Amino acid sequence: MSDEPDPRDRPWRLWASVAILSVFAFSVLFGFVLLPVIQGRGAGLDAWTSICRALGIAPGSPAAPQPTSDAKAQPTTRVAWSAGLMEALARPSAAGATLASGCAACHGRDGRSVDTKLYPDLAGQSAAAIYKQLYDFKQGSRANPVMSAMAQPLTEEQMVALSAHFASFPVRAIAPVDLAAPGEAIERLVARGDPARGIPACNACHGDQSGGPVEAPRLTHQGTQYLAAQLRAFKSAERHNDIYSRMRSVAAALSDGEIDGLAAFYSITLAY
């Protein structure tokens, strides 16, 4: 039996090879020439630049010019928690009481704000939350004309001492008020959030008994206007010192009515 190919198979092999090579050539032509040229034309690029980008000779996508920007990256918080830092924050000291005199004009010597519309109460606040904000003001992750200037000269030890001092005072007592119930929608955001919009329960981080991030501040009994202003600052990204963009993501999904409702809820409520 002969091992030589049957002459009758030669035409089929020839045509199969031609077909394969044709498909390959068309794919190369379409993928690296025709399609990039069409895409580049819509983006205002010449044909040669589009083809070079598609082949990887020139940088960028063949569909659009490389974006350029002179914008500077916004700083993010660089605070780092350690066992030693947490232990120090749990120990109020005389140094903290001395330093607190420089904060009294706005926050009071005992951490009770002189104007809750503008300044938050620090009394009873988490020492970690106070420390993080001081740290961010000092590093530039959070900006405020007054607080940035106040925090700049503080040493690490002084920030710890101030945080522990103010956290040692009890929360401001508020007189009972006769206000309308916040409504089911606000209570639902507080207790359960809104998964459809990617909003977690507010109390998961900010409730008095929550197990949220160590730096999450207590919101109860803060001023309504102050809380609403901070939520709006997160929503617009004017304030951006939240770790992993947590608060910016949440606030961006909130309506103005929900922001006002949540601020009112926490200002008069002990979180459950």
If you had to describe this structure to a student in words, what would you say it looks like?
It is a single chain. The chain is mostly helical. The chain has 3 domains: 18-63, no CATH class; 83-167, Cytochrome c-like domain (Cytochrome Bc1 Complex, Chain D, domain 2, Orthogonal Bundle); 184-268, Cytochrome Bc1 Complex, Chain D, domain 2 (Orthogonal Bundle). Helix content is 50%, strand content 0%. It has 13 helices and no strands. It has helices spanning 10-42, 47-55, 83-89, 94-99, 104-107, 127-139, 145-151, 156-167, 184-191, 203-206, 224-235, 246-252, 256-268. The chain is elongated, with a radius of gyration of 31 Å. 27% of the residues are buried. The model has no long low-confidence stretch (mean pLDDT 84).
- What form results from the Cα inertia axes? elongated
Helix content: 40-55%
Order of helices and strands: HHHHHHHHHHHHH
Number of β-strand runs? 0
**Assembly type:** single chain
Tell me the fraction of residues in β-strands, as a range. Answer: under 5%
Short description:
The protein is mostly helical and 272 residues long.
Spell out the key features of this protein:
Cytochrome Bc1 Complex, Chain D, domain 2; 3 domains; 272 residues; single chain; 13 helices; elongated; mainly alpha
Chart the SSEs and their pairings.
Blueprint: H1 10-42, H2 47-55, H3 83-89, H4 94-99, H5 104-107, H6 127-139, H7 145-151, H8 156-167, H9 184-191, H10 203-206, H11 224-235, H12 246-252, H13 256-268
Helix pairs in contact: 1-2, 6-7, 6-8, 9-13, 11-12, 11-13
